[in-house]
Write a structure and sequence with these properties.
CATH class: Alpha Beta
Oligomer: single chain
CATH architecture: Alpha-Beta Barrel
Distance between the termini: 12 Å
Strand order of the largest sheet: 1-2-3-4-5-6-7-8
Order of helices and strands: HEHEHEHEHEHHEHEHEHH
Structural class: alpha/beta
Number of helices: 11
Number of strands: 8
Mean pLDDT: 98
Bound molecules: ligand LLZGTKA7
Length: about 240
């Protein structure tokens, strides 16, 4: 297995309990992927589960998408940094001051405890479930989804964060606007033949990697597969080609 490529796969542990998440982790043992903990699992299994993943040697993306007043986000970022995660996120729609506050919360935690390492902070531009109609008519932002994504990516860059969450369709436009070292983390990954579900802006794993994304996020195409290990291995194989 190509470990460098496998490290760019983030598996979304969207489960209602730590026990169910552990069953998947056991089946994926030896695959050096990132583990993504989102709201569903964190709100039930909490910080202890994140520490357990770190203890097992995984890189962890804590996907809680903070969106609040700057002072609250700063406090949240401080607490998250203390958990030792490798990446966490906020919503870019919270604004530049809010994103800077997240950076400040990390800085504060690192100053308080020198044994901590600095996590990557990224911001959600537009959810990959959002299509143009939803963007224009419900969210109230005119123009194309790509324009909105690039607008939020620029604000994220301005705030000094490390990258954004977007769909793989927008990777090139983000890199053009913010530079190649600005990270893109892309959900909305659907291997050929897998169910679209609630995702609107999707690409296959191979196409996402060819477009230059740094990380792909995959949930149901692995977790809902009867053989999740084989599904993950096939995705990694496709990423390598
Ligand atoms: O814009 C976004 C931001 C986050 N996500 C998260 O990624 C996974 C995708 O899961 P699938 O089952 O592969 O659809 C999930 O945890 C989302 O919360 C996203 O999809 N889009």
């Amino acid at each position: 297995m190509n470990n460098n490529i496998a490290g760019r796969l983030m598996v979304a542990l969207d489960y209602p309990s730590a026990e169910e998440a552990r069953l998947l982790i056991d089946r994926l043992q030896g695959i050096p992927c990132y583990m993504k903990v989102g709201m569903q699992l964190f709100y039930t299994a909490g910080p202890d589960f994140v520490r357990e993943l770190k203890h097992k040697g995984y890189s962890v993306f804590l996907d809680l998408k903070m969106h609040d007043i700057p002072n609250t986000v700063k406090g949240g970022a401080n607490s998250i940094t203390r958990l030792g995660v490798d990446m966490f996120n906020v919503h870019a729609a919270g604004g530049v001051q809010m994103m800077k506050a997240a950076r400040e919360g990390v800085r504060e935690a690192l100053a308080q405890d020198a044994s901590l390492t600095s996590p990557l902070i990224i911001a959600v531009t537009q959810l990959t479930s959002t299509d143009k109609q939803t963007l224009n008519e419900e969210i109230g932002i005119p123009g194309t989804v790509e324009e909105a994504v690039v607008h939020y990516a620029r604000r994220t860059f301005e705030a000094g964060l490390d990258g954004v969450v977007a769909s793989p369709l927008e990777v090139q436009a983000i890199k053009d606007a913010c530079g190649t070292s600005f990270k893109t983390v892309t959900p909305g990954i659907r291997p050929q033949g897998s169910a679209q579900g609630d995702q609107s802006r999707t690409l296959t794993p191979g196409e996402a990697i060819r477009r230059g994304t740094d990380f792909i996020v995959v949930g149901r195409p692995i977790t809902a597969n009867a053989d999740p290990r084989r599904a993950a291995e096939q995705i990694i194989e496709e990423m390598t080609l």
